[in-house]
Design a protein that fits this description.
By secondary structure, the chain is of the alpha/beta class. The protein folds into 2 domains: 2-20 and 370-481, Immunoglobulins (Immunoglobulin-like, Sandwich), CATH 2.60.40.10; 31-359, Inosine-uridine Nucleoside N-ribohydrolase, Chain A (Alpha-Beta Complex). The protein is built from 15 helices and 16 strands. A hairpin with a 6-residue loop joins β15 and β16. The radius of gyration is 23 Å and the shape is globular.
């Protein structure tokens, strides 16, 4: 009887593999993105917008909407968005020499809109429509099945007003279908409309570290997103390099690099607190937007109902995607935090930024470009305990013909398989597979013994030897079933 059971498992896992590979392939479709920004409240929104425009060929930018927030309650600054896009206009032609797909500045300018100039839920309800909220409705009404990612860099009330209006003007079935199109990644709660939306619309996909940072409450240091650069300001323990998220690095690598770099302001609090919301969507082979628990440059989140804290606007009433910890070893020291789900990738995302700003001023031959990490097999495989497993990255190449280094490693947290060794070793070895060739294009290991089906996530990192060194990834999900 074991054979039919095993075949059934294989069939189930094969179907899962086909589905996974299909959705992974969908990453090649550009995500639809709407930005809500309280730009000019502090420098970091302008910083994030400069970086976003360097990746704008990876997105279908549907809107950039200037909003209020707890720090900027009664005014909006769409003029600053326009100013930065005008600088982008001066470098767009040069960016196209490096990668295709960078949109015309005129296309982006047509999508700059204004939210309602009032704080939080004061801007939600009758006679509170704005060109921003109406624009969101127009985007949702488009006959396009792709999700609409709303990345919230300030207050969320422009989205809340759009949903309020749709809820009151559309049939319930139509309204729910529009809600299910939405994916929200919010940088904490910078007004009280985010908690309201989560309570009112339980089907709304929402990534957030809930909480506000006002009235003597200090939520932000608990936010996953502060892993982008927040150690100086929020004083959390880290193993990351602080020197590459500080003003001297920015001055040397970004601000002096052409018209767009000149728009990047000095760091006052933390660098680019809003950037994780779109780093999460970058197609670098690592992340999968529909699964925040997989982890990416934009962090890792799990689906649960967060317990109430005094810095929350109100209790959460249902599961949302929220903070979860990664364990990262640096120089023999173990760091465990939600911020680590972002800062563990810091050298890669900062080098990538530095390379792309160079694209705005240099020809292709004088710039570095990321390697193309490829597998010689599917991104998901099924094996039995005791099987020899071969991981193959030989199809990988580099557009600049740079030398490449390879690193295969077990990303423990996203998988169900728990690797346990001798904790007395007190090192990362406790949490890594024994792999032959882990620093080569082809690695092998023996599938561990399991008593029930489990999975593990193995990451391939490929880094070139250009300046700055650039990294791309592939993720292999290994489904392990018990041996017969």
């Amino acid at each position: 009887m074991k054979r039919p059971i095993f075949l059934t498992l294989i069939l189930i896992l094969t179907i899962s593999s086909v589905s996974f590979c299909k959705t992974f392939a969908q990453l090649r479709e550009k995500p639809r993105v709407i930005i809500l920004t309280d730009i000019e409240n502090e420098p970091d929104d302008a910083q994030s917008l400069v970086r976003y425009l360097l990746y704008s060929n990876q997105f279908d930018t549907e809107g950039i909407i200037a909003t209020t927030s707890c720090w900027q309650r009664n005014k909006i600054a769409d003029w600053r968005v326009i100013e930065i896009i005008n600088a982008y206009d001066k470098v767009q032609d040069n960016l196209l020499k490096h990668e295709p797909g960078y949109p015309e500045a005129s296309f982006l300018l047509e999508r700059v809109k204004r939210g309602f100039p009032d704080f939080g839920m004061n801007a939600v309800g009758k006679e509170k429509d704005s060109e921003g909220s109406d624009w969101i409705i127009n985007i949702l009404d488009k006959p396009d099945d792709r999700p609409v990612w709303v990345v919230v860099w300030g207050g969320a009330n422009t989205l809340a007003q759009a949903l309020w209006k749709l809820h009151h003007t559309r049939p319930e079935r139509e309204f729910l279908s529009l809600v299910k199109k939405l994916r929200v990644y919010a940088i904490s709660d910078q007004d009280n409309s985010g908690p309201w939306m989560r309570r009112m619309f339980p089907d709304l996909f929402f990534i957030v570290s809930p909480g506000f940072h006002e009235n003597n409450e200090v939520a932000y240091q608990y936010g996953t997103w502060t892993g982008i650069s927040g150690e100086w300001w929020y004083k959390y323990r880290t193993g990351a390099d602080l020197s590459i998220v500080d003003n001297p690095w920015v001055k040397a690598n970004i601000q002096g690099k052409g018209p767009l770099g000149a728009q990047y302001p000095d760091i006052e609090y933390i660098m680019e607190g809003d950037t994780p919301s779109f780093l999460y969507l970058i197609d670098n082979g690592l992340g999968y937007p529909e699964r925040p628990d997989y982890g990416s440059w934009g962090g890792r989140y799990e689906l649960y109902t967060p317990p109430y804290k005094k810095w929350h606007h109100e209790p959460e009433t249902r599961p949302i995607w929220s903070n979860v910890e990664d364990m990262v070893w640096v120089d023999g020291v173990c760091h465990i935090s939600d911020q680590a789900t972002i800062w563990r990738w810091r050298p890669a995302y900062q080098n990538d930024f530095a390379a792309r700003i160079e694209w705005t001023i240099k020809p292709f031959a004088e710039s570095n470009h990321p390697p193309v990490a490829r597998l010689g097999h599917a991104n998901e495989i099924t094996v039995r305990s005791g099987d020899k497993v071969t991981l193959d990255a030989r199809p990988t190449n580099d557009p600049d013909n740079d030398e490449l280094t390879y690193k295969w490693w077990l990303y423990l947290e996203p998988g169900s398989y728990l690797l346990y060794r001798d904790y007395s070793l007190n090192s990362n070895r406790n949490y890594q597979l024994d792999m032959d060739g882990k620093d080569t294009p082809v690695a092998t290991f023996t599938a561990p013994s399991v008593s029930k089906p489990q999975d593990m996530h193995i990451i391939l990192e490929v880094t070139d030897n250009g300046t700055p060194a650039l990294t791309r990834y592939q993720r292999v999900i290994v489904n392990i079933v018990p041996a017969e």
